[in-house]
Design brief:
Length: 468
Amino acid sequence: MSKTSTAATLEKALARARAQRDADLNDLMEELRIPSVSALAQHRPDCLRNAEWLRARFERMGFKAHLVNEPREGKPVVVAECNGAPGKPHLTIYGHYDVQPADPIDKWETPAFEPEVRNGNLFARGACDNKGDHMTAIKAVEHLAATGELPINIRFLIEGEEESTGYSLPQYLRKHGKDLRTDAVLVWDGGFDELGRPVMATALRGILYVEIHARGAAIDLHSGSFGGNAPNPINTLARIVAALKDTNGHITIPGFYDDVKPPTAAELAEWRKDDAAFQKEALHLTGARALEGEADFLALERKGSRPTLDANGILGGFVEKGEKTVIPATAFAKVSMRLVPDQDWEKILKSLEAYVQTLTTPGVEVHLEKLGSAPPVLSAADHSAARALQTAFEEAFGRKTALMREGGSIPVAVDFQEAVGAPLMISGIGQADAAVHSPNEHLLVSQYHTGIEALIRFICRFAESGSA
Ligand code: BES
Ligand code: ZN
């Protein structure tokens, strides 16, 4: 396709997107009604339904689509391809259709899976992470394809296990990586920063997620008859969890920081400029009285280039209303660590396993169960596809893109790098106050429509850039 005809395609697709805003929003709302929570077994049928919903949509757009499920008990990956632009670049677009659990459900103003627009925001679990994101990509491609001239070759890979560190897509990439040739991968699962700028992530943190299980007596006991003699696994577990991090935010697991690489001087200089504004906004977004973290580091370092450890849940004993005088037999805590280059989760898991044994009390047995892990990734943002996306963001949103390290994790990102080998663009359209993973998750409707326009622009620029 010539430059002039790409310009005409761009204008036609933008005009179609502007004319069909209501339909585009309704389509997103339809997907948001599917409660595709990957972490909860009872929602597996919903995950399968969501995968089918996407497959049907891709087929309607003229894509060849199929579901891949490996291992079989996992949630399927939706693979959709259109290769109608020979000689033009190839783009892979990554997203995920699974969402985080909606709880605590009583904190939602309207039900999590009954999407509703209020004050220009669309409220629902997944509105932002990631259905809002991947629907902007699907819509951008749909508007371009409807002109009859999709200017590049595209493969969508939309997985259903991102929020629960699954293996279906990583295994698929590891097995078929060499057949999945592509010029760039749009890892479309990020968002704007606290200062309202589009972001392209130069790093993602890795993760190590464990449960710490504690067992004392063989059965729950009367706390009067046995209190003073019986071991209490809640008390011990609380002490263990507390000991993992000191009051200066320093993690005490032996060797934990050994492989942490400091950021570059250029990164630090950039973060220093933005840190005060970031802290102010982060304080506002958290609604907390103060921010906490490792002393002597910028808040932006603590967000992106320093590792962390957090308890995500702790359970044991009697948690209903009222009193029950009991010494429970068991307790457990969920603890996750965000890891940065060059930390190695296997090394840290071994150290943590040995460390908790030194922290327990004589009558309490503790053991770890690993729930998930992913290594940290670094991603350059100076390749031609990345430049095309930054230009498209600026044209659509009128803001320059911030290049920064993101605190979150996308476990499959490393598999794209290692098995497919193409450069990544890690980005997305949700605004910073979107409350992702929290109650009342929401997406600014204007971000959705402008996001669609930005991606239409990006694809047309990418088409002109030649193979990256
Ligand atoms: N979209 C996020 C990842 C993300 C967060 C990217 C912040 C950029 C900025 C993704 O859906 C996510 O939440 N991932 C999980 C992975 C975990 C369950 C292994 C995360 O980071 O908690
Ligand atoms: Zn998420």
